[in-house]
Design a protein that fits this description.
The chain is an alpha+beta fold. The protein folds into 2 domains: about 160 residues, Aminotransferase class 4, branched-chain amino acid transferase, N-terminal domain (D-amino Acid Aminotransferase, Chain A, domain 1, 2-Layer Sandwich); about 170 residues, Alpha-Beta Barrel (D-amino Acid Aminotransferase, Chain A, domain 2), CATH 3.20.10. Helices cover about 25% and strands about 30% of the residues. Strands 1, 2, 3, 4, 5, 6, 7, 8 and 18 form a 9-stranded mixed sheet that branches. Strands 9, 10, 11, 12, 13, 14, 15, 16 and 17 form a 9-stranded mixed sheet that branches. Strand 16 and strand 17 form a beta hairpin. Helix 2 crosses helix 3. About 40% of the residues are buried. Bound molecules: 2-OXO-4-methylpentanoic acid. 2-OXO-4-methylpentanoic acid binds next to loops.
């Protein structure tokens, strides 16, 4: 498929103050868009000026939420060049999500090239300050106007770009987590491992409750026994327990995070034993009280590695360390990962793709 590059009609000013970038609020001048029609396949791929869509009010995504998205980042490296982090993994996950949501798959090589080309054209939007990056949001939505419940016959697949700073206002300051004993995020057989909007919509009620009580994020327990740790709102979760890195296994209800994968690989290289196993809420509280659990952190493209300072479940709170200082191992993982992403050290894994 060819890709057309349409001229830019209006140029937005670049962010004036990179230190005050809010996550996902500002977008670059251009976007990528291609369209799908059953019988015709993907067509009309183009890089075009960023603009709102005209969608039919009956567009199926607006009624039945048939949609998927991804999140990856482009980094401005020490030498001024721009690199993407494991972009092929995101594209592969996008297609796994498409299959689960009965949406058409994309040609992975073509889509990867399209993402790279868009970032290259928008290169000046990749911020330069410490901790900033260009967040890339590939998305697919069902556009067919139809109120019957079935997979749509028409789709948009698009990519937008947003210059971002830290996901949390506090930067690398440890976050406070509230564990929900009532709401659940995903059950076995559902769509928990898919990056689909419905999972996030379903999480908002508990997230709002948590925010009202002064917490940053919700930690979800498994849907069946409400006993085992699953994941946090916008990140996977890892614990340093008995000196081992322990994290929930991938069994269909949590996201197969690319940062999670990277962090597990780095931890193994640092000589840490890694256990992907069910970890109960009781173990968290007992471990924190006995000192066996020393650190906890979330991982995700948006948050990178985000230290956790305390957990609250019902009327019980445990604080890790002083609750305010990032643990040594968490900091080491954050530094190692971001050093690779920003090109401050060599990348022995082949994770980084320069443009
Ligand atoms: C990401 O980390 O890229 C995410 O998609 C999380 C989020 C902001 C929903």
């Amino acid at each position: 498929m060819d890709m057309e590059i349409l001229p830019l009609t209006e140029k937005k000013p670049l962010p004036k103050d990179e230190s005050s970038l809010v996550f996902g609020k500002e977008f670059t001048d251009r976007m990528f868009l291609m369209e799908y029609q059953t019988g015709r396949g993907w067509h009309s791929a183009r890089i075009k000026p960023y603009a709102p869509f005209i969608l039919d009010p009956a567009a199926m995504v607006l009624h039945y939420a048939q949609e998927i998205f991804e999140g990856l980042k482009a980094f401005r490296r020490e030498d001024g060049t721009v690199a993407l982090f494991r972009p092929a993994d995101n594209v592969a996950r996008f297609n796994r999500g498409a299959r689960r949501m009965c949406m058409p798959e994309v040609d992975e090589a073509f889509f990867l090239e399209a993402i790279k080309k868009l970032v290259k054209i928008e290169e000046e939007w990749v911020p330069r300050s410490e901790g900033t990056s260009l967040y890339i949001r590939p998305t697919m939505i069902a556009t067919e106007p139809m109120l019957g419940v079935r997979p749509a016959d028409q789709y948009y697949c698009y990519v937008i770009l947003s210059p971002v700073g830290a996901y949390y206002k506090g930067g690398l300051a440890p976050v406070k987590i509230w564990i929900s004993d009532h709401h659940v995020r995903a059950a076995h057989g559902g769509t928990g491992e898919v990056k689909t909007g419905g999972n996030y919509a379903a999480s908002l009620y508990a997230a709002r409750e948590a925010a009202a009580k002064g917490y940053d994020q919700v930690l979800w327990l498994d849907a069946k026994e409400k006993k085992y740790i699953e994941e946090v709102g916008s990140m996977n979760i890892c614990f340093l327990y008995d000196g081992k890195l322990v994290t929930s296994p991938l069994h269909g209800t949590i996201l197969d995070g690319i940062t999670r994968r990277s962090v597990l690989a780095l931890a193994r290289e640092m000589g840490r034993e890694v256990e992907e196993r069910a970890l109960s809420i009781d173990e968290i509280f007992a471990g924190a009280e006995s000192g066996r659990l020393t650190e906890a952190f979330g991982t995700g493209t948006a948050v990178v590695v985000s230290p956790i300072g305390q957990f609250t479940y019902r009327d019980k709170t445990v604080v890790l360390g002083d609750g305010k200082t990032t643990g040594e191992f968490t900091k080491k993982l954050y530094d190692t990962l971001t050093d690779i992403q920003y090109g401050r050290v060599p990348d022995p894994h082949g994770w980084v793709e320069t443009l």
